Every structure is written in C-alpha cells, then in structure tokens.
Amino acid sequence: MHCPFCKHHDTKVLDSRVADEGGAIRRRRACSACEKRFTTIEQMQLTVVKRSGTTEPFLRDKAVSGVRKACKGRPVSDDDLARLGQQVEDTLRDSGCAEVPAHEVGLAILEPLKSLDEVAYLRFASVYKAFDSADDFAAEIASLMAAGADGELAEQAAQNKQHKNT
Fold first, then answer.
1. Residues 141, 147: Cα–Cα separation, whole Å
2. Fewer CB in 10 Å around end: N or C, the chain?
3. Distance between CA 80 and CA 127 in Å, rounded?
4. What is the pLDDT of residues 79-116, one digit of tens each?
5. CA 63 to CA 19: how far, in whole Å?
6. Do 58 and 37 fall within a single domain?
7. What is d(CA 97, CA 92) in angstroms, rounded to the nearest whole number?
8. Which domain holds residue 96?
9. Could you read off the pLDDT of 27-74 as tens digits, one per residue?
10. How far is residue 81's CA from residue 72's CA, in Å, rounded to a whole number?
11. Residues 16, 56 within the same domain
C-alpha cells in the first residue's frame, strides 16, 4: 500500500476492524517514511459478467433503477427499493463469487420483487424473461396464484395445528 501523502511504498497496519456489517475491513495505517496516518477500506468487488463477456462492477443503484421503472405508479417507496437493492447485493455477495453472471443479478432481483409488489414483478419479469405473448403472462400469473394459494394453505395448517395444541 502506497502512502497517499508521500507515495512511499512501506506502510504499517496499526488497527483492523470489520466494517459495513462484515462486508468490508477498515484498516488504520501509518507511513514509515513521513509517519502520517490514513485509513483504507477493503471490500470485495462484485463484478457482473455480461452476455457479451465484458465485465463491469456491480452497482446497486443500477439494479434499483431497473426495478424502479417496473414499480412506476405502484405503491413502492424509495426505502422499499433501497431495501430490495441491499437484499440483491447481499444475495450476490453470499454466493461467494467475485464475478456474477448478469443473469444471476436478474434472478436475485425477481424473488424480493415478487414479495414487494406482484404487479411490478410481472412488469420486470416480462422484460427479464422476454415474454413473447399473453400466454407467457398468463403462465406467470398462474404460477403467482398457485404460490399464493400454497402459502395460504400452509398458513391455515399452521393455525389449525396451533389451535389444536391450545
């Protein structure tokens, strides 16, 4: 690590701490030449590999801006979108891979968006999954409705079990 003040190449780490909820390491350093102190933050850089093979850094704001378009006119707040962006980034980081295919970014967006707003989910999915016809929409809506029915049945079963135990 080069000193930002004198550009000397020999610096010592004085202190290291976990930062950003475990997503980064903050290091306090001192230059052995000029003795000035400075802080560095080390964070795993997520890289998105596009279909063309080019790579670019993952930007949470870019993922959120695509979702924002799907949420236009829907009761979704900026805070909701910020939480969704954090969930997507956390999911990608949890995969443990520094390079993530663009397709995986889209998949990481779909699940939290489905629970946030189903209409926005359908809008986003129609572009992401390249729907070609109304049949594609109908199939996706049927899958949403089936998942909703399964969730309701599971909730009813849990309530019945709890009622029997009391």
1. 10
2. C
3. 21
4. 999 999 999 998 998 888 889 999 899 999 999 999 99
5. 23
6. no
7. 8
8. 47-130
9. 999 999 999 999 999 887 889 999 899 999 999 999 999 899 999 999
10. 12
11. no
What is the token pair recorded at 29?
């350093």
Instruction: Assess whether 30 and 76 both reside in one domain.
Output: no
Domain count, the chain: 2
Residue linked to tokens 């236009």: 72
E-strand spans in 20-103? 24-31, 37-43, 47-49, 55-57, 99-101
- Residue 95 placed within a domain: yes
Query: Would 30 be classed as within a structural domain?
Result: yes
| Residue 49 C-beta-side C-alpha neighbours within 13 Å | 7
Q: Residue with structure tokens 């930062």? A: 19
The length of the chain in residues reads 166
* Rounded CA separation 99/6 (Å): 34
44: how many CB neighbours lie within 10 A of its CB?
Answer: 12
